[in-house]
Write a structure and sequence with these properties.
This protein is an alpha+beta fold and about 450 residues long. The chain is built from 13 helices and 20 strands. The chain has three domains: about 160 residues, FAD/NAD(P)-binding domain (3-Layer(bba) Sandwich), CATH 3.50.50; about 100 residues, Guanine Nucleotide Dissociation Inhibitor, domain 1; about 110 residues, Polyamine Oxidase, Chain A, domain 2. Helix content is about 30%, strand content about 25%. Strands 1, 2, 10, 11, 12, 13, 19 and 20 form an eight-stranded mixed sheet that branches. Strands 8-7-15-16-17-14-18 form a seven-stranded mixed sheet. The protein is globular, with a radius of gyration of 23 Å. Bound molecules: flavin-adenine dinucleotide.
Length: about 450
């Protein structure tokens, strides 16, 4: 073997949630694992950074977890960071619309599951009795379907909007409850996203036997939540993590078995198994043998745009971790000062009060991706002023826009069938990642679950 070639038992491509969780599992199992990541930092599409002049850490976009992200929590427990994730004691979604009207979905304490959800819906102020009745009937049917074993396959041929219309859910109930939940979870508007995704979300969060809709938020920057600790765990178990290593080709042996990869620098890695944890659009950029081509190449990304604002005084109350905005361009505002707590050293504003660090989110941001950062900051300020009449543009001390063009899979109708099952795609080549077919939308939990499924098959 020449000096331009090295060997491993298992090569893992990509250092996001899926690659890192697979790395920890396989290295602790005793395999000689080498993880290759093209960027200088780990974390993939979920990372945080500090920037001079900004009070941080700044996430590449606010991420929400659910209490039913069981594989993710197991992974965080395995690397010793689960306590950095704060899970609310019950579901509490607060909304405010462009006229400043407030509403909230908050099932009563001690009433979990479908009954709690029913009471929560009954208490929504912005919906008429008729809207609530339509929702209740829809939820009843979904919970029956979840108990009967999941979602109907034909859901992937229609959008959420088409499905909900067919199911008798009113437009107002959609706009004030289901659309915001769907957009946050699926990163596409209901007129674009497949009904399969919403069915998976509802089943997982509310109706499956192990459902738990409570929301979890990282109390630290995303990289501190898992990327650094996972890298440490891999190294301690004898694995190797190489950053700034961009894979350019996957190599096949004469018998058709995948034998390794080549990097842009011309280095070859040989291994018994290769586990790709790359997103499909990144995998498609690599020189791949014919055996790895497939329908998955038709999968497309959907963007998210985040606008962080540092105010010279508080807008949200301490106990308001996040609020959904209805009928506006920005969809959620997160109170990063409250979420990060003592990890920030908020300076006092001119009004004598502490400042506040907010992060606002636009999912399914196809149009906003093309907008200039200044225009996005103005849009965020305009929407905050509509929903919170006290807000003033002059309160903004600093702003930062982060655009993620390849944030998640675009779960349009037909996409579900293109997602390969996590596992062996061709002899010696395994695939994982949020976009593989885990029965979940392309989320963190799907990434970690896919890695666990692929690791079982690697043997
Ligand atoms: C702004 C934003 C908000 C989000 N919000 C949520 C949320 O609230 N809840 C939720 O559950 N999910 C959310 N997601 C989705 C979540 O971040 C992803 O599902 C998850 O991070 C995907 O992990 P992964 O390991 O599958 O893929 P990635 O994170 O994409 O990891 C793949 C890695 O491969 C590397 N790579 C690519 N090409 C090469 C190459 N040629 N050679 C070597 N390495 C390569 C990449 O740099 C990357 O590090 C959000 C995503 C974004 C961007």
């Amino acid at each position: 073997m020449d000096s331009n070639t090295a060997t491993a038992d298992i090569l893992i491509l990509g250092g996001g949630f899926s690659g890192l969780s697979a790395g920890v599992t396989l290295a602790r199992r005793g395999a000689k694992v080498v993880l290759l990541e093209k960027k200088t930092h780990l974390g993939g599409r979920a990372f945080s950074f500090h920037e001079p002049g900004y009070e941080g850490p700044i996430d590449n976009g606010q991420h929400l977890f659910l209490a039913c992200y069981r594989e993710t929590r197991k992974f965080l427990r395995a690397i010793g960071t689960e306590d950095r994730l704060e899970i609310s004691d019950r579901l509490h979604l607060e909304f405010v619309d462009g006229s400043g009207n407030r509403d909230r979905l908050r099932p009563p304490a001690g009433l979990p599951g479908r009954l709690g959800l029913g009471f929560g819906i009954a208490a929504l102020r912005g919906l008429s009795l008729r809207d609530k009745w339509g929702l209740a009937r829809f939820f009843h049917r979904r919970s029956r379907a979840a108990l009967d074993g999941g979602f109907a396959p034909n859901l992937d041929s229609m959008t959420i909007a088409e499905w909900l219309r067919k199911e008798g859910v009113s437009l107002r109930a959609r706009e004030r409850l289901l659309d915001p939940i769907a957009l946050a979870a699926l990163n596409e508007k209901s007129e674009i996203a497949s009904a399969t995704g919403l069915s998976q979300v509802l089943s997982r969060a509310f109706f499956a036997p192990d459902s738990d809709p409570r929301v979890g938020i990282s109390r630290v920057g995303l990289s501190d939540l898992y990327a650094d600790a996972a890298e440490r765990a891999i190294l301690e178990a004898g694995g190797i993590v190489r950053r700034s290593e961009r894979i350019s080709a996957v190599e096949e042996g004469p018998d058709g078995r995948i034998i390794g990869v080549r990097t842009v620098g011309g280095f070859s890695w040989r291994a018994r198994s290769v586990l790709s944890c790359l997103a499909p659009w990144d995998l498609a950029k690599i020189d791949l043998p014919k055996s790895l081509q497939g329908a998955w190449r038709g999968l497309r990304p959907a963007p998210i745009v985040s606008v962080s604002l540092w105010l010279d005084r508080p807008l949200l109350r301490e106990e308001q971790a996040f609020v959904g905005l209805l009928g506006t361009e920005i969809q959620w505002v997160f109170n990063k000062s409250a979420i990060l707590g003592s990890r920030l050293n908020s300076k006092a504003g001119p009004a004598g009060s502490a400042g506040q660090y907010l992060s606002t989110v636009i999912s399914g941001a196809h149009r906003e991706l093309l907008c200039k950062p200044d225009a996005l900051v103005e849009a965020a300020c305009r929407d905050l002023a509509r929903c919170f009449p006290a807000f003033r543009r002059e309160w903004v001390r600093n702003a930062k826009v982060v655009k993620e063009p390849f944030a998640t899979l675009s779960g349009v109708p037909g996409a579900e069938a293109l997602r390969p099952v996590p596992g062996e795609l061709a002899p010696g080549f395994f695939v994982a990642g949020d976009w593989t077919r885990t029965g979940l939308p392309a989320t963190i939990e799907s990434a970690v679950l896919s890695a666990a499924m692929a690791c079982k098959r690697i043997g």
